[in-house]
Specification:
single chain; about 425 residues; alpha/beta; eight-stranded mixed beta sheet; two-stranded antiparallel sheet; 12 helices; 12 strands; about 10% strand
């Protein structure tokens, strides 16, 4: 047998191995004036999250920019005159294509007349600090009101307006337009809230204050006693302060309306929110247009000189005939003040905006409401139920009425003393 051949092994360190050739790169020295090529990072693939962000509104949509000749809001010359009942012109709305390249869709940008500045004033920060320190809530923050910079950003606290929201920040109802948190079982009421609220308002030195609350259907009285106690505390600490109460419907319990209306307030407000035909779609199923009318009517008869007020959102799909009918029903129950404002979708989970109503149309409905006999009407895209311009007007009306009553009382006392001396 022949012996098998042994494999031949090569030593790596053997001098007989052929070394790998060394490739020398040519050296080049750049000129001093030569600009190197810019670094171009690799492009990251698009993500689903980024696509969803692109579909939503941009940051510029929520910040007011300096008006230009093309995009500025209509001036007073664009608004209808007192003899013309229809708007003369409508500024064009901006549109944009958003979304990924293969799924572009057109959306309507927020109109320029709805853009507001970001609140940064020192007074805004002071008021916010006071509210957090006393564990108080405001509807300005919870409902994402666009006027918060205007109302909280006055030159001093006495010029500011804040709508205090009582009974916590969680509501038992789920209206499709409202961004306030909802729950079937909200936390219990804070027994110290009436005292803290009165102390905060006294500290600010306001002449007019608005109180509102979430709906508390989990409570037997709907929170009416808590509301009334807060008003009494405010009047004890600041007798000259005028108080407006924006209440719920207390599930139709009119005795609770009497309780709040008789607690010393000056203005009783309850919002119908929209026309009767859209109420089942817009508001919670436990609310009703006719039920709200009964609340306003009962509040009007609660005391002499009581001012009643309600607010309506436009842009939900209402028609002109429906608005006329709503105003007629409000006048039948003696409502004194009505406000019109643009509905703005708080989040994508809420009702979409049907129409962006122009300032000219808001001015038209303001004039129509005044012609129907309303004491006052605030109407505009950014007007809300607690609009401080309206509060200033109502404050003057109340003071004048009180002044006339005081003069009448003095005259009556004078006549009685004369009769007694005779």
């Amino acid at each position: 047998m022949m012996a098998s051949k042994a494999p031949r092994l090569r030593c790596l360190f053997s001098s007989h191995t052929t070394p790998a050739p060394i490739i020398r790169q040519p050296f080049s020295r750049p000129f001093a004036t030569e600009v190197p090529d810019p670094y171009t990072p690799s492009r990251r693939p698009t993500t689903t999250f980024r696509d969803r962000l692109n579909v939503g509104p941009s940051f510029d949509d929520f910040v007011a920019s300096p008006p230009s000749a093309e995009t500025s809001a209509p001036t007073s010359s664009d608004l209808p005159s007192s003899t013309d009942d229809t708007p003369t012109s409508e500024p064009p709305l901006r549109t944009a294509l958003v979304g990924p390249a293969n799924r572009k869709r057109q959306i309507t940008r927020l109109p320029t007349w709805l853009q507001t500045p970001i609140p940064t004033s020192p007074n805004y920060k002071r008021i916010k600090s006071d509210l957090r320190g006393l564990n108080l809530h405001t509807v300005c923050e919870e409902a994402r009101c666009p006027n918060i910079n205007d109302c909280w950003g006055g030159s001093d606290k006495s010029a500011a307006t804040a709508t205090i929201m009582l009974m916590g920040d969680t509501c038992t109802r789920g209206c499709r337009f409202c961004s306030v948190k909802t729950s079937r079982a909200p936390p219990p009421l804070d027994p110290h809230e009436p005292e803290h609220t009165a102390e905060a308002l006294k500290r600010w030195g306001l002449g007019y204050v608005v109180l509102t609350s979430v709906d508390r259907d989990d409570l037997a009285d709907g929170g009416a006693h808590h509301f009334a106690e807060t008003i009494r505390k405010i009047k004890d600490k600041a007798p000259g302060m005028l108080v407006e109460a924006l209440t719920g419907d207390y599930a139709g319990d009119l005795e609770m309306v009497d309780l709040v209306a008789g607690s010393g307030l000056d203005v009783y407000a309850h919002n119908v929110e929209t026309v009767e035909a859209l109420t089942p779609v817009v508001r919670d199923r436990r609310a009703g247009f006719r039920q709200s009318l009964r609340v306003l009517e009962r509040a009007k008869g609660a005391g002499e000189g009581m001012i009643t007020k309600t607010s309506v959102m436009l842009g939900l799909g209402e028609t002109e005939d429906q608005l006329w009918e709503m105003l007629r029903e409000l006048r039948k129950v003696g409502t004194d003040v009505v406000t019109f404002g643009q509905y703005m979708q708080p989040t994508k989970r809420h009702m979409p905006v049907d129409t962006y109503v122009t300032p000219a149309v808001f001015e038209m409905w303001r004039q129509r409401a005044l012609d129907m006999g309303f004491l006052y009407c605030a109407s505009g895209p950014l007007v809300r139920s607690s609009y401080k311009a309206g509060e200033a007007f109502i404050e003057n009306v109340i003071k004048k009425r009180k002044g006339r009553r005081d003069v009448t009382m003095v005259d009556d006392v004078g006549r009685m003393s004369q009769d007694a001396s005779i």
